[in-house]
Recover the amino acids of this structure.
């Protein structure tokens, strides 16, 4: 439910302006509010977050937060469905063009190898990675999603990393914050020394390995038993740009995570709160942050206790009131803690 908003309020219900958030939160707490209080925020009426009280038109009543969340989820589902339809159309077009391509003599550039190659099976993936490693001369960029890296995974690529370090190749790795707790990763980085730089984010994109800005590898299925080897310059450049932007946002592994500024709430719980505010289920949140569903629910329970929420619906309201939804920069103390900024 994106919406266009009115002049000065060009946003949707998924990203309220500060004034709109303040007025809507007050309406939820009180059950209704005078129409004049909503005059500075016409976006709330346009987005159907407030509507006239049928018993007294001079007052406005709020749409229930759970109903707003349902609308947002429905909108997200529609967007995903539309994207899937576009992908299906693109695949059909790709197959049509591929059929035409078989009727045309190959160009000189095609002799250099396909721009996109599907690698089916771990053996083929490993062989292609070894080949790219041997040809690499300057840098390797990797994105490693998930949580704590298993030692078996780290050992699997250690021979490549060691060979690259021996040739003076520089490596930069992106992980989730959860990976900081893995002893295997710390041991691996100690072995690699200055050849590897590592940074972390709350969540990262799917796995990516990029050699010399010329060839990239990404998974082709959820099980990672298939991969795509990409050599198309535009695709590789795009992936390199994505990596650089994530790298600038990430926190060096040697630096501590920023404090939330809210007593009793950790950085991870702040990330979970923001994803809850977006309407994600526990399993989705756990996957995106690289933690187990059980750990995720334990953090949600602590969030509820800290914010004084007795239900998931109330937790959503508390998250919005304290700014933990991630759309405001200033952190405040949870309600009931005596903070003058708590709404």
């Amino acid at each position: 439910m994106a919406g266009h908003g009115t002049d000065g309020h060009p946003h949707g219900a998924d990203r309220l302006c500060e004034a709109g958030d303040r007025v809507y939160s007050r309406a939820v707490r009180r059950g209704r509010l005078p129409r004049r209080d909503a005059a500075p925020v016409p976006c709330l009426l346009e987005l159907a977050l407030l509507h006239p009280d049928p018993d007294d038109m001079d007052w406005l009543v709020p749409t229930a937060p759970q109903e707003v969340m349902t609308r947002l989820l429905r909108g997200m589902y529609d967007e995903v469905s539309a994207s899937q339809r576009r992908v299906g159309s693109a695949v059909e077009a790709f197959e049509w063009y591929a059929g035409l391509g078989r009727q045309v003599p190959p160009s000189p550039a095609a002799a250099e190898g396909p721009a996109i190659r599907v690698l089916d099976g771990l053996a083929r993936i490993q062989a292609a990675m070894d080949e790219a490693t041997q040809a690499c001369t300057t840098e390797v960029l990797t994105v490693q999603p998930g949580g704590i890296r298993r030692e078996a995974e780290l050992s699997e690529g250690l021979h490549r990393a060691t060979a690259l370090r021996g040739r003076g190749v520089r490596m930069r790795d992106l992980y989730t914050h959860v990976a900081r707790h893995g002893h295997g990763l710390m041991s691996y980085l100690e072995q690699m020394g200055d050849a590897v730089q590592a940074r972390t984010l709350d969540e990262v994109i799917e796995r990516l390995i990029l050699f010399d800005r010329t060839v990239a590898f990404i998974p082709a299925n959820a099980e990672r038993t298939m991969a795509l080897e990409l050599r198309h310059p535009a695709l590789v450049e795009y992936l390199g740009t994505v990596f650089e932007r994530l790298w600038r946002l990430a926190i060096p592994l040697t630096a501590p995570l920023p404090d939330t500024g809210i007593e009793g709430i950790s950085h991870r719980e702040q990330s979970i709160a923001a994803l809850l505010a977006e309407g994600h289920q526990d399993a989705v949140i756990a996957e995106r942050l690289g933690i187990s569903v059980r750990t995720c629910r334990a953090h949600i329970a602590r969030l509820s206790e800290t914010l004084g929420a007795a239900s998931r619906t109330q937790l959503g309201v508390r998250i919005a009131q304290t700014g933990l939804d991630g759309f405001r920069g200033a952190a405040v103390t949870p309600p009931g803690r005596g903070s003058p900024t708590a709404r």
